Amino acid sequence: MTTRKQALTGVRVLDFSRILAGPFATMMLADLGADVIKIEHPTGGDGTRQWGPPWFDAPDLDEQQSAYYLSVNRNKRSVTLNLKTAEGRSLARQLAAQSHVVVENFKRGQMAGFGLGYDDLRAINPALVYCSVTGFGQTGPYADRPGYDYVIQAMSGLMSITGPVEGPSYKVGVAIADVFAGLFGCNAILAALRHAENTGEGQHIDIALLDAQIAALVNVASNYLVSGDTPPRYGNQHPNIVPYQTFRAADGEFILAVGNDGQYAKLCDLIARPDLRDDPRFATNPARVEYRAELVPILQGIFETRPAAAWVEDLLARGIPAGPINTIPAILNDPHILARGLVHEEPNGMKLVGPPAKLSATPAEVRTAPPQLGEHTEEVLREVLGMDEKAIGTLRAEGVIA
Description:
Low-confidence stretches: none
CATH class of the largest domain: Alpha Beta
Number of strands: 13
Structural class: alpha/beta
Strand order of the largest sheet: 5-2-1-6-7-8
Largest sheet: 6 strands, parallel
CATH superfamily of the largest domain: Crotonobetainyl-coa:carnitine coa-transferase, domain 1
Number of helices: 18
Strand content: 5-15%
Shape: elongated
Mean pLDDT: 96
Helix content: 25-40%
């Protein structure tokens, strides 16, 4: 474990969240140096521990670890705690009193039912930053609905703009609403921590997957709010920029992303078609958007004459954004990604995606692998609450901890 001071060194996060959105947020805090204590039920723990295959097996591990669980739980300490027992709830309150942040993603009101809601914990720790992550938020007509990423992708309108122009709607290939909620949650926690440091006043953060996904519609939502028109589905094209899409080459597909008129002029020079540059239908981006149906087939016919890699190489040489459509193995073994440290390997051979943020003075790091269930229970109870071996043994005998 590193001894270098990081941006969030000294910040303790008590993490009651599981699955994806909450653990993703707390992992980002952990990458930046926070001490994230992951509270799990003694039996089974975080549900994603069982979400395999695939599994990671190593000789020094007592049990399998699912790839899903590994993806969002590095740099944390796992403590088992049965919140259905009075002693378990008491220990949770004691830990919260010694923490700066609490993150939870139970159904609305469930933490309050344990006596661990924001108002309960604020009474013993006024500076506490308390983040609740749910599908639909703490208020509103849908607040008590269960929230799952797939449902949120559908309800938010995201699926209505994802997929081929003619055909069914598609979800994004990862649980993107959970990821966005985690990002917004982490951002809000950092802001609230700054406020708490300046004033001594904590606050309750209400993060909803639906809110996060709607915010992430960005220009598509704005297009509707400005025009009143229902955004159509464009497949792999862009609603506001042309040409900005997938094209077929002689041996496969590649991406062309012409972002301005200067880049378009360079494209016309590359393909030796100055007439497409000078044609008033195509000379400006607004015109190209209007006449995309005429321009795109012409470009498609040209791109079919050469291999994708040749087009990408020539486009990039002229400063025109372009790229291959990689498989996951291709990008995770790409020399640029490896040079950026995005793939981290533990001594036991476990590979993890590394932190994406690059801070020059206090870099994010992978300090420890995702923990086994209850791996740090005794360590945390001794270190944070000062408990001795006899008291810990009693808790284990009573089923409060594993």
